[in-house]
Amino acid sequence: MELPALKLDPETIVVNIIIVIAFIILVVYVVRSTIYRSRKNNLIKVETGRLAYKMRSANDPVPVDRLVHNGKQFIVNGKKHLTSNYILVRAEGAYMRDRGINDGDILYVRKFDEVFTREQIHPRDILLIYLNDKRYSGYKIRVFKQYNPEHPDEVETYYYNEDGTEHNSSKNHNVIDVKGIIKYRTTD
Fold it and tell me: Please, are residues 90 and 45 in contact by the beta-carbon 8 Å criterion?
């Protein structure tokens, strides 16, 4: 038994092609959205310290309403930045909210390299520090106070008490553990 030949008019062919293209676009959109969400959820979470300080500073991270990101660079307020120069982390806790950092914010941390060095740290800069000791292992955010006058390879940092007063960190941090300075922040 022979099947009858299928005859399609040109209109039907065009409609079927449009449906296939729309389906492919939908699949690509869903896959990209899933990858984007998983990347955002897999960012390193950083502990932000105690309750926030009540005063804003020129050293606070720049709020970004919109980031244009293409994988190799991102644009903040019209200025291009290489993605390879930054670490992206997610703030955990609202302890630095008066410094402009809220729970869940994505923070762009400028990594140190040959051009951007640890010598460029200024008082009140918010630092990303990696700790690995008996009490804590992971990343924390602390405010830079000064280099330790007695041990220049250490930095003195602080966080804030509930009443907004500065509280010195329990120990100084080795300069090599300071991974960068928070420069930009954005919400999801």
Answer: yes
